[in-house]
Amino acid sequence: MAEITFVPRDHNLYRYKGFCFLKDMMPPEFIDSLQNFKIRDDDVFLITFPKSGTTWTQQILCLICYEGHRKGTEKIDTTERMPWFESQTLNPVSDLNSLPSPRLFVSHLSETFVPKELKNKKAKVIYVMRNAKDVMNSLYHFQDILALAQKSPDFNHFFEKFMDGEVFAGKWFDHIRGWYTHKNDYNILFLKYEDMIKDLHSTVKQICFFLAIELDDEEIDIVVKKASFNEMKKDPLSNKENVPDSIITRKVGSFIRKGQVGDWKNIMTVAQSETFDKIFQEQMRDLSLSFTWQIPE
């Protein structure tokens, strides 16, 4: 087994093969076992770096794939319909294996940790990416309600943690690079959070096409409406209301916060932004990827 080290600025994390895991939920032996997880041809994996639109896209996929979710005739929340793949605490492998097809999973795993059989290009992967400045801002606020997190005293401290990859899932740069450079190994659809904000209707149609699911215009409109942030905030089936208190401390905030593009400007200093921009250019310049950092009002 590869070396396991603990993260100096967050004792709730351990680093394993370049990735930071939650030590109480994801033991390394379990993580290694996931590479041999048996994939079915109709499996769908939603993969993101944390706080990149995971909960939002999870709701969109449940609305697209389950008529009962779309019509509101089935009271099953998104965490049950679409379990967190790498959390042994919440979802033992035996439970994942027993799920009926088609199975939908959500994951924050880097490309190196996912099941080997995903490369058969039959099962589908949807990867959602979000600009790192907004991810950083969202993660900083999320630590207030995450019971498992070791909280930073201020944003300056958190900025250093994030840039050094001392947050759950490690470095944003590595996560994006790993999946994007191996895109030809998977049956994968890349989506950008900012594009979803600008035109969710088109994104829903794009996802439907990728999954070979036919919805009429009225059904697509329902998906778009029920996937709006205002609707999700008051919907117990999608707002993580049923996540255990041992994970989320609701009395200090909600799982779904703002979902805005460019909110990083309200917390990040000019110097921090410039530091990030320099590292971003060094880390990402060889990739044919562009990101939207703000949307004009």
Structure characterization notes:
There is one protein chain. This protein is an alpha/beta fold and 297 residues long. It has a single domain, classed as P-loop containing nucleotide triphosphate hydrolases (Rossmann fold, 3-Layer(aba) Sandwich), CATH 3.40.50. 37% of the residues lie in helices and 12% in strands. It is built from 13 helices and seven strands. Strand 2 and strand 3 (19-22) form a beta hairpin. Helix 2 (54-65) packs antiparallel against helix 11. The longest helix has 15 residues, at 270-284. The termini are far apart.
List the helices and strands and how they pair.
Layout: E1 4-7, E2 10-16, E3 19-22, H1 28-33, E4 44-48, H2 54-65, H3 67-71, H4 78-81, H5 93-97, E5 104-107, E6 124-129, H6 132-142, H7 155-163, H8 172-181, E7 188-192, H9 193-198, H10 200-211, H11 217-226, H12 229-233, H13 270-284
Parallel strand pairs: 4-5, 4-6, 6-7
Antiparallel strand pairs: 1-2, 2-3
Helix pairs in contact: 2-11, 10-11
GO molecular function, one term: sulfotransferase activity
Pfam families: Sulfotransfer_1
Protein name: Sulfotransferase
